[in-house]
Write a structure and sequence with these properties.
Elements lengths: L2 E14 L12 E14 L9 H16 L2 E2 L9 H12 L5 E7 L5 E4 L3
Parallel strand pairs: 1-3
Antiparallel strand pairs: 1-2, 2-4, 4-5
């Protein structure tokens, strides 16, 4: 059967400051983050690779419910978009056939991580 990539988009709001950065972002501030979880799997007999609802449920439980309306410095050391992407990958890699995690800090700035 063919292998496909599926994307599930979620969001969360959180505060943070960058501990190893000189500039405005070293001060406490917040973002409305967008997260795109990309999985890759084979299409099964039922016509689906993975149910989108299952991707969303796992991502909400393991990532969004932890980060939403949180202060990210209490959860992730130096919570840059890059470190948030790696943290998200680590939280999901055992439960989903991950291909990529994308973290949008703003509409124009985002980070993609394809794990190891």
């Amino acid at each position: 059967m063919p292998i496909v990539k599926l994307n599930c988009t979620l969001s969360f709001a959180a505060s943070h400051f960058l501990t190893k950065y000189k500039g405005k972002c070293e001060n406490l501030h917040g973002h409305n983050y967008k997260v795109i979880i990309t999985v890759e799997d084979e299409i099964k007999e039922n016509g689906l690779a993975i149910d989108f609802k299952d991707i969303k449920k796992i991502a909400e439980e393991k990532v969004i419910n932890i980060l939403d309306h949180a202060h990210l410095n209490d959860i992730i050391e130096n919570p840059s978009a890059e470190n948030i992407a790696v943290w998200t990958w680590e939280k999901l890699k055992k439960d989903l056939p991950l291909k990529k995690v994308t973290i949008f800090e703003t509409e124009d700035y985002y980070c993609e991580y394809e794990g190891k």
